User: Which sequence fits this backbone?
């Protein structure tokens, strides 16, 4: 499988010396790049989506507990702050008559 290919796998997420690892039911495993979302789910059966970033590495884009609904894409805090600031500034300028 080439690097940067989309990957969707389900298995047990465990901590290892090299970082989070997804153990597959068939005996394989993937090393997962650590993040807060990944670290919260260690010890759980999960499904993850991401892109292959090395021989057995996955850059996780979405991760959720197995059997629950797939999470929607969520905008990051920086984007939320930027949009809310621009909206507030536009409203202030409109009230002051600049628009």
Assistant:
């Amino acid at each position: 499988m080439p690097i940067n290919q989309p990957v969707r796998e389900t298995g047990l997420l465990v901590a290892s010396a090299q970082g989070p690892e997804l153990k597959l039911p068939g005996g394989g495993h993937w090393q997962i790049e650590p993040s807060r979302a990944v670290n919260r789910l260690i010890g759980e059966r999960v499904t993850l989506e991401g892109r292959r970033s090395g021989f057995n590495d996955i850059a996780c884009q979405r991760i959720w507990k197995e059997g629950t609904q797939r999470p929607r894409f969520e905008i990051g805090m920086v984007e939320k702050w930027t949009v809310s600031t621009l909206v507030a500034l536009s409203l202030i300028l409109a009230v002051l008559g600049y628009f």
Remarks:
- Helices lie at 36-40, 77-96.
